[in-house]
Design goal:
This protein has 9 helices and 17 strands. The chain has 373 residues and is an alpha/beta fold. The chain has a 6-stranded mixed sheet with strand order 4-3-2-1-13-14, with no helix packed on it. Strands 5-6-7-10-12-11 form a 6-stranded mixed sheet, with no helix packed on it. Strands 15-16-17 form a 3-stranded parallel sheet. It starts with a strand and ends with a helix. The relative contact order is 0.10. The mean pLDDT is 91.
Length: 373
Amino acid sequence: MPRFLHTADWQIGRQYGRFAPEDAAVLAEARFAAVERIAAVAARERVDAVLVAGDVFDAQTVSDRTIRRLFNALQGYEGPWILIPGNHDAALAESVWTRAQRLGAVPPGAHLLLEPGVRAFPELGFAVLAAPLTRRQTHDDLTAWFDAAETAEGLARIGLAHGSVQGILAEEIDSPNPIAAGRARRARLDYLALGDWHGFKQVDERTVYSGTPEPERFRDNGAGQVVRVDVPGPGRTPVVEPLEIGQYRWIAWDQTLSVGSDLDLLVERLDGLPPETVLDLTLGGALDLAGGRRLDQALSVVQGRCRSLQVHRAGLRLEPTDEDMAALRADGYVGEVIAQLRLQQDAGDAAADTAREALAILAGLLGDQAEGS
């Protein structure tokens, strides 16, 4: 009964330009660590092979050092590692794969299937039907030949491909490379291991997207997993179980602050975040000066505790109350400006928003000045 780990979309060498340099470097490093954890799980689970369904590398132009580091990360499991190229690292005439071979970086246990074909592992009880991408995009179904492919009797038939199952992911998948729905059934596959969709998705009982092992987007789609697959025998239904392996949790929140309890709830949620959180927070609504200071304090704490925090607060207004303004004790010319802005923000015309923003900025400056004195 062959047992596999199925994984894909490692995207080694991925850059995180939207993040601060410190966070970007750590998130890129996490992708190597994910491969090391996969190797450890493969050894622990005593699998017969690890199936890697494309996009091992994020780009053809990754450095030689990155290539060597990736293959070094496989050392925790001797293999076989069975890898195919995807759309990001297609098997071009000159590619990241040919460079890896010239460097001598590919260990004996790593099998690079760079051309379509059947690779049999009779001693392990299975044969792999591989459909690697040899260019970044194709409008042909590269798995079509699976239907007529012959394998030795008694071997489990395992398909390995990278692309979009038609009618399932056509609008959401990264690339247009089509795979016909029902391919596993028509090709008499015992399991079809797919890559390109970055979350776990079981298309049918024999067709599965493993997703990326380390999340890199703010989607709740089952990323951060590998799939353990047990094939009871040729023609029998495989047993599929996703295993959590990701390090960081990517979370997107959209929070409107209208009353004091909204801020209480947000602060409570922020306090409960684990250190492995990558948070994208969009704020709207309005706060008084005290609420604004409390929010800033809570965000400062989270920024120091979690892996990454990105805050979008263009929709959040600071609206000082009468008590806030009285406490600022602004007099003379400043007091006259504040009074004028307060009148304008209540006028309801086109200049009201500008006056409200100016008042919030001025109140914030005066508040900071008062705290520092």
